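Exercise 7b. Backbone tokens:
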């Protein structure tokens, strides 16, 4: 499994694309243009149902009464809260519709000009801004280096692509690709806060099964699997997304079971997307600073204990 690499994006002038923003958070003043944040301990865990339509949110692990749990940190409210994924819908309206660029680098998404719904790396104020983090204080205090975030399956009317875009006009760094019938891992270091492009090729309800796994400093392995619920398009019902049941993942073959140790996540971190809106996106990308804080050192800086 290759490590997750935060990357910077430059926009394409030929299409409405999304400027990337991927950074590792640090305490104190954030670097200009980066989505840095610090999550305080004691933030509430709410049990109500919620459709998230705009604002900043991150999926990530949290310790809830000592239990390792994949949740969503909702920063669109004041104060911020943590939400259960089985009671949350990410509602993506038609304000997120963009055309697939007329560029072979994006042919994996679909034909040029095809309309797709995009949650961009750089925040669109009309679209909920979905990222991920490993910044719950108890999580940072107990994990040994980082976590593996794995796509285990997608149910929906179309395909899902999650990707980053290199700043040198290189190929899209695809992280998750629902056309591949395999587990797809992303390595996420401690105290990381990242946003990528999420592209949905058709409107409708999508159920995205995700697993988060980590080795703890006490030697234990912890894992949790949850379903992210997306209602894509104005005509898609939030209630339908909440009521939908994810299909059971296929049973592993006897050969795969023999080759894969129990409770071990496998797969390769596939790379993905982003495009920008003209000159404004270029200016934004130029201001982004990517800071990579690794393992224990990142944890010490985050907790203010490094000398």
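Sequence design result:
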């Amino acid at each position: 499994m290759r490590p997750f690499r935060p990357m910077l994006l430059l926009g394409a002038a030929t299409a409405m694309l999304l400027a990337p923003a991927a950074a590792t958070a640090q305490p104190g003043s954030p670097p200009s243009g980066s989505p840095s944040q610090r999550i305080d301990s004691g933030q509430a865990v709410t049990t109500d149902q919620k459709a998230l339509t705009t604002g900043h949110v991150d999926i990530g692990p949290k310790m809830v009464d000592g239990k390792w749990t994949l949740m969503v940190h909702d920063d669109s409210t004041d104060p911020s809260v943590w939400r259960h994924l089985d009671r949350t819908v990410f509602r993506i309206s038609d304000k997120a519709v963009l055309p697939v660029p007329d560029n072979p680098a994006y042919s994996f998404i679909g034909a040029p000009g095809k309309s797709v719904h995009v949650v961009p790396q750089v925040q669109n104020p009309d679209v909920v801004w979905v990222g991920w983090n490993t910044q719950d204080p108890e999580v940072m205090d107990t994990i040994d280096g980082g976590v593996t975030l794995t796509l285990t399956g997608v149910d929906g009317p179309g395909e899902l692509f999650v990707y980053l875009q290199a700043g040198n006009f290189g190929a899209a760094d695809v992280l998750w690709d629902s056309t591949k019938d395999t587990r797809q891992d992303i390595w996420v270091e401690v105290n990381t806060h990242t946003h990528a492009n999420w592209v949905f090729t058709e409107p409708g309800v999508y159920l995205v099964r995700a697993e988060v796994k980590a080795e703890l400093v006490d030697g234990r392995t912890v894992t949790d699997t949850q379903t992210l619920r997306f209602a894509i398009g104005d005509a898609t019902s939030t209630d339908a997304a909440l009521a939908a049941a994810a299909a059971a993942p296929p049973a592993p073959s006897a050969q795969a079971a023999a080759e894969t140790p129990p409770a071990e996540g496998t797969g390769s971190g596939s790379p993905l997307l982003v495009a920008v809106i003209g000159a404004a996106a270029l200016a934004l990308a130029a201001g982004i600073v990517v800071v990579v804080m690794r393992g224990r050192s990142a944890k010490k800086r985050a907790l203010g204990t490094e000398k």
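Instructor comment: The first strand starts at residue 21 and ends at 24. Confidence is low (pLDDT under 50) at residues 1-34, 253-303.
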